[in-house]
Structures are given as C-alpha cells and as structure tokens.
Amino acid sequence: MATATSIVRSPAALLSAKVTVSDHKPTPTVQFSRFPSKRSCFTALLSSLHDNNNDDDNNNNVISHPKPLSSSQLFNSVSNGSRLRVAYQGVRGAYSEAAAEKAYPNCEAVPCDQFDSAFQAVEKWLVDRAVLPIENSLGGSIHRNYDLLLRHSLHIVGEVKLAVQHCLLANHGVQLEDLSRVLSHPQALAQCENTLTKIGLSREAVDDTALAAKHVALHKLKDTGAVASSSAAKIYGLNILAQDIQDDCDNVTRFLILAREPIIPGIQNPFKTSIVFSLEEGPGVLFKALAVFALRQINLTKIESRPLRNQPLRAADDNNGSKYFDYLFYVDFEASMAEERAQNALRHLKEFATFLRVLGSYPVDTTMM
Ligand SMILES: O=C(O)C(=O)C[C@]1(C(=O)O)C=C[C@@H](O)C=C1
C-alpha cells in the first residue's frame, strides 16, 4: 500500500503540494511549527487518495472520496477495508495521538500542526475523523476548539476521555538542578502549575507537549526540560526526571470525535448531546433557557459561554449608554436526540433563542467514570 504521512497544514496547500509516497508503513514526519526546521517535511496526505484502491480514481486522477458516515461510526475501518484515518493536533507522542488511538485502536493517526488544520483535513476528505481536546479537569476549556466548532460544519460523533500523566523530561545526563526553563503546551503547563512553581522553572508555551520534547532533544538543550508524556520520552530519546507531575493525580482531558456526517442517535447506551445557542439580552433569559432542560429532568454536564465574534458589542435598548457583549452558549446535556424529551426541550428553546445549532448527539465515554 502506497502511503505518505505528514503534518497536515492547510489542506488547500496540500492539494498543490508535492507528495512523497513510500511503500512502507507510514512514519509521520514531524515539524516544529514554532521553531524553524531546516528540513521541509511538507509531504502530503494526498496519499490517502491513492489508498482507496479505486481503479476509476487511480486511472483518471480524480480525487476519490470515502463514503459518508453511517451509524457504524465506531468501527475502525472505512467501508473499503482500509484503516480509518484520524487527524489530531500535535506531533507523534502528543496526548491527542493517544486519544485518537483510544477512540479508534486500529486507526492511522494523522498529525496536524493546528486545530484548524485538523478540522479542514476532515472537511476536505483527507481524513475520516478528527479527535480534538475540548476540556481538561484541571485546566478547563480549550476555547479555541469551541470557536472552531462553530466556524466549521463538522459533527460531534463521539467523545473520549484520557487520563493525562505528565512527566518532566530532559536530555540524558541533565539533572533537575541544571534546568532553568521548561517547554510545553499551555494546558500542560497549567496542569503542572504547582509543581513547576515549586521547582522554580520558567515556562514557555509551544504547540503541543511532544513538540516540546522533540525540540529539547533535537537541540540537545541542557538548561531546558519538557513537560510531556512517557511515550514522548521514548520517541525522542529523553530521560524522565519526574513522573506524575500534574497538580492532581486525576487529570483527565476530554476529546471530541468529529466527522463530516452526524451519527444516528440511539437510546440503548447513555448518550450526550452538544448544542450552541444565542439569546436576546434581558433579565432571566439564560435562566429561562436552562429551565427547558430542568423542566424535563435533563441533566446538564457542561456550559460554556464564548463571545459572539462578529458582533461583540451591542447598545442596550434602555438608552442609558451601556453596551452589552453578545454571547454564544455551548451546552452539553445527558440525553439523546432520539428521545422525545430532548426534542421537546430544543423545540422549547427555539421559541426564544436567536440561534440554535445541534453540534452532535453521541455516546458518552463511560470508561473513566
Ligand atoms: O500537547 C499535547 O500533547 C496535546 O495533545 C494537547 C493537550 C491539550 O490541548 O489539552 C491535550 C491533553 C493535555 O491536556 C495537554 C495538552
């Protein structure tokens, strides 16, 4: 099987990029998005288009598209038997790669340098799914992905919870007292805030934890460590100076599984539904919005508000010169869209919401309860 794998950057660029195709099992090339790399690793994902064994497409050079999703979304292969391609943000050894592999154990995990590239990779049919972090038990929400969910038109088809155990990594021969600085993803740095303060290390943010490890290894840094996973230590040949350095031993990140098509919601297993809506300004409007769920005994598991970007400020009607920010509300609730009470709740909400979109109705990941 001819395959090439690289970090996905802009899929638009990918379509015009030179493609390197190898006959081997894909070994993702890595690239520092924040640190200039001498070697361009911009081989492309277009190989996937050659992987489909579709004679018509191969002969006519036409892009072959995988079939749209059905309710069999949890299967590990696409309909032609090839492995499911799952985009994640980061380089090899990132927690997001582990999340993609937890969601789809036999998948081909495809690294992307930005969250936006992962969304686009699904939209452009370069991959079948994306697995992206949305919240962490210590660090809170990953706001960027909330904003991207709205900007793109993908559907949430599942969630995956991953226990995140951070290590302090350094080059071999480097001791803890040699370190003055540590690199990592901002969420990872936040999750280890107390430990890093105790050790007295200055912090620098990079795009993902594994990228931090790769940078420390590649540049043979002696005064800089990385907060990353033990698998990143193995991949980049670093020494583990300290294990489990997160501020709480129960450190869990929840990831969303995104696809081009929604799944047909069921009622056999516990399901969750994610929505986003906006409301008119006024006293008690949010209370009224949340009451549509309370009235039907529907439990909410998450609420997040984000500024409505294209109209961030609005004058109040009362002419007293005050201005309001407009907000979008993201809500997760414990019910399937196949349930009448969920349909009724949303019908009720629609009566006064100025905007409402269902982002997905999907099975709850019960593995970490
Ligand atoms: O940097 C990584 O390794 C990631 O996969 C990203 C990420 C995140 O965005 O929250 C994922 C899990 C951990 O919470 C820390 C970082």
Q: Tally the helices.
A: 12
**Low-confidence segments, ≥5 residues, pLDDT <50?**
1-7, 9-75
Any idea of the CATH topology of the largest domain?
A: D-Maltodextrin-Binding Protein, domain 2
Which sheet architecture does the biggest sheet show? 6 strands, mixed
Helix and strand run: HHHEHEHEEHEEEHHEHEHEEEHEEEEHE
Classify the oligomer.
Answer: single chain
Q: What share of the residues does DSSP label as strand, in percent? A: 25-35%
Structural class assignment: alpha+beta
Helical content band: 25-40%
The CATH class designation of the largest domain is Alpha Beta
Overall pLDDT confidence: 81
Describe the global form: globular
The Rg value, from CA coordinates, equals 22 Å
CATH homologous superfamily title of the largest domain: Periplasmic binding protein-like II
Describe the structure in your own words.
The chain has 369 residues and is an alpha+beta fold. The protein folds into three domains: 152 residues, Periplasmic binding protein-like II (D-Maltodextrin-Binding Protein, domain 2), CATH 3.40.190; 79 residues, Periplasmic binding protein-like II (D-Maltodextrin-Binding Protein, domain 2, 3-Layer(aba) Sandwich); 99 residues, ACT domain (Alpha-Beta Plaits), CATH 3.30.70.260. The chain is 25% helix and 27% strand. The protein contains twelve helices and 17 strands. Strands 1, 2, 3, 4, 5 and 11 form a six-stranded mixed β-sheet that branches. It has a five-stranded mixed β-sheet with strand order 8-7-9-6-10. A hairpin with a 7-residue loop joins strand 14 and strand 15. The longest helix has 11 residues. The structure holds prephenic acid. Prephenic acid binds next to helix 4, strand 3, helix 7 and helix 9.
